[in-house]
Design brief:
The complex is a heterodimer of chains A (100) and B (333).
Chain A lengths: L3 E11 L3 H11 L5 E5 L16 E8 L1 H15 L5 E10 L7
Antiparallel strand pairs in A: 1-3, 1-4, 2-3
Chain B lengths: L1 H8 L2 H14 L8 H23 L4 H29 L4 H12 L3 H13 L8 H9 L1 H19 L14 H9 L2 H21 L3 H6 L1 H19 L3 H29 L4 H12 L6 H8 L5 H31 L2
Classes of the chains: A alpha+beta (100), B mainly alpha (333).
Protein name (chain B): Sodium-dependent bicarbonate transport family permease
Keywords (chain B): Membrane, Transmembrane, Transmembrane helix
Organism (chain B): Planctopirus hydrillae
């Protein structure tokens, strides 16, 4: 089967950021995303608080350029103050034009 | 005073709260499902709004005008005093001071309900339009404090940090305003008030057993959850320091006394002045935290959540409300 190499961007962070992050990825050019609720612990040791909601994992398949742009936005505007991590993974998809 | 304290401590609300705290302290596995917490808060806020709306339909504008004015005044004064004390005496950063002040400027609906139940138990019911005052006090304090924070940090926002990076861009006031005004608590309270006002006593009658008959039971269960949530924050008291501990107990007394005084001056009854005092003394932990987190991300959430939830909320539930009641009784002679 013919597959196209693309990039999977995964963002895990405070659930409160949900709407803002959706706007960011859509503005940057992502065509879709998947969100799941999740929990865990990281370098900030504890979540902000049960009253502020669970953590969320946002995944989107994008072109390497869009992924890079989004990592830049996350680094500048989110990493300094919010509990957020992000990472990239190479993926192979069919119907590549659906994502870019 | 001791008798009033005893009555308050032995109420189902206080006991459920203490049970929740105790369960967390001994690390019990007890926890309420998130959906139940959300359902209870929806039920309580809507019940409060509906009942308030029905009562509001009986109230005259003349009766409501002065209490509404002093409530708005409290919404402006309390975040300013809290900010000044935190910044000047506590030496907190601008963001932390504004973040905490936003919580103390807004109001805790659960403290309001607890105060309302307390004065009712003692035979001094508050005015029926009090939920209207609750909605009036919910958002101004948050905006005033966030406004102070934004103005104070405006010059910093234009300067790059030492490491060359730029601070987080401020969100437009319009977005923040939209977030606070469309928050679940505001929709339920204001919407409930409007629905109650329109339906009046007759329309309310069929749903009354559901919204009033189960109210105290639901509140007791909710307070159990609040006890668990506050208990989970007790460990943070070590890191927040003694100043915040003292602030979380002294500030409510000052704001509460001001609320009682202004309420009395505006013509509220003993019960009404007590409830207004409890409202002014309380710190929000439902509406304010997300607004502050999104608008002032530099502010440390541990500080404002611990102060509002683990210090001021239990203080008001156990000691504060009886104090404001005594004060209101003294003022009324």
């Amino acid at each position: 089967m013919h597959t196209v190499p693309l990039t999977l961007l995964t963002i895990i962070g405070e659930g409160l950021l949900r709407e803002r992050l959706i706007t960011e990825i859509e503005r940057a050019g992502a065509k879709g995303y998947t969100i799941t609720e999740c929990s865990g612990s990281g370098s900030r040791h504890r979540r902000v608080g049960e009253l502020l909601g669970e953590n969320m994992k946002l995944e989107c398949v994008v072109s390497p350029e869009v992924a890079d742009k989004l990592l830049g936005i996350l680094s500048d505007e989110y990493f300094p103050h919010f509990a957020v991590i992000a990472y990239l993974s190479p993926v192979s998809v069919i119907r590549g034009d659906k994502y870019v | 005073m001791l008798e009033v304290l005893r009555i308050n401590l032995c109420s189902p609300i206080s006991l459920a709260f203490v049970l929740g705290l105790f369960a967390r302290i001994i690390r019990s596995e007890l926890s309420l499902p998130r959906e139940l917490y959300a359902s209870l808060s929806i039920y309580l806020l809507l019940a409060l709004g509906l009942k308030g709306g029905v009562e509001l339909s009986h109230a005259s504008m003349a009766e409501l005008a002065w209490p509404a004015i002093v409530t708005l005044l409290l919404g402006v004064i309390t975040p300013c005093t809290a900010y000044l004390v935190l910044r000047r005496i506590g030496r907190f950063s601008i963001a932390d001071s504004a973040g905490i002040a936003a919580h103390y400027g807004s109001v805790s609906a659960v403290t309001f309900i607890a105060a309302q139940q307390f004065v009712q138990t003692l035979g001094f019911p508050a005015e029926g339009f009090m939920p209207t005052l609750l909605t009036l006090l919910e958002s101004p304090g948050i905006h005033v404090a966030l406004g102070i924070g934004a103005v104070q940090t405006a010059r910093l926002a234009s300067q790059p940090r030492a490491d060359g990076s730029h601070p987080v861009e401020r969100r437009p006031l319009k977005e923040v305003l939209h977030e606070v005004l469309t928050a679940r608590s505001m929709i339920l309270l204001v919407g409930g008030l409007a629905c109650g006002f329109v339906m009046g006593e007759k329309g309310y009658e069929p749903v009354k057993p559901f919204f009033e008959g189960m109210f105290k039971g639901a509140l007791t269960l909710f307070l159990l959850e609040m006890g668990l949530a506050a208990g989970a924050r007790l460990g943070d008291l070590k890191s927040t320091g003694l100043f915040l501990l003292a602030f979380g107990m002294i500030m409510p007394i000052l704001h509460g006394s001001l609320g009682v005084f202004l309420g009395h001056w505006a013509g509220l009854s003993i019960g009404g002045a007590t409830v207004l005092g409890a409202m002014a003394a309380s710190a929000s932990y439902i509406a304010a935290p997300p607004a502050v987190r999104m608008t002032l991300p530099e502010a440390n959430p541990t500080l404002y959540l611990t102060a509002a939830l683990a210090i001021t909320f239990p203080f008001n539930i156990v000691l504060g409300i009886p104090i404001y009641f005594q004060l209101a009784r003294m003022l009324a002679g």
